[in-house]
Design goal:
By secondary structure, the protein is mostly beta strands. The chain has one domain. The protein is about 0% helix and about 20% strand. Strand 1 and strand 2 form a beta hairpin. The two termini are about 15 Å apart.
């Protein structure tokens, strides 16, 4: 059984909101295609088909 950690996030903006997620080492996030605005250069990104669950 997998466990989940608390998500460290902050919501910015009024009419055009965005969320900033802070990932701890070993954590990952799944974004909807075309919706990720920015990532830190130290974060690696992989594109996968499906829902990202690895099943």
């Amino acid at each position: 059984m997998s466990t989940s950690d608390i998500i460290d996030y902050q919501i910015f903006g009024e009419e055009m909101q965005f969320v900033e997620v802070e990932l701890d080492p070993g954590e990952s996030a799944i974004a909807e295609a075309g919706m990720m605005m920015y990532k830190d250069p130290n974060i690696t990104m992989d594109a996968v088909f499906g829902d990202g669950s690895g099943k």
